[in-house]
C-alpha cells in the first residue's frame, strides 16, 4: 500500500483512499471501515469555493 491512506480508529486497518467511499449524514463526513464496520470521522479542509479536501482528524 502507498502513503495515501485512511486508518480505522477501531481496528487500525490501513486503507488506500480508493478503497473507501466517504459518506455524509446528520453527524457529518465519515467512512465505514470495511474490516470492522466502525464509523470513522472525516473533515473537509477545502476552501468554500474550491474542491473538497478530506482529512482524518487525529482523534
Structure description:
- By secondary structure, the protein is mainly β.
- It has one domain (5-55).
- The protein is built from no helices and seven strands.
- It is globular.
Question: What is this entry, summarized?
Answer:
With 59 residues, this protein is mainly β.
End-to-end Cα distance? 23 Å
Strand content: 35-45%
Number of strands: 7
**What is the average per-residue confidence, as pLDDT, rounded to a whole number?**
91
Q: Write down the overall geometry.
A: globular
Number of H/I helices: 0
What is the N-to-C order of secondary-structure elements (H for helix, E for strand)? EEEEEEE
- Overall radius of gyration: 12 Å
Descriptive labels:
7 strands, globular, single chain, three-stranded antiparallel sheet
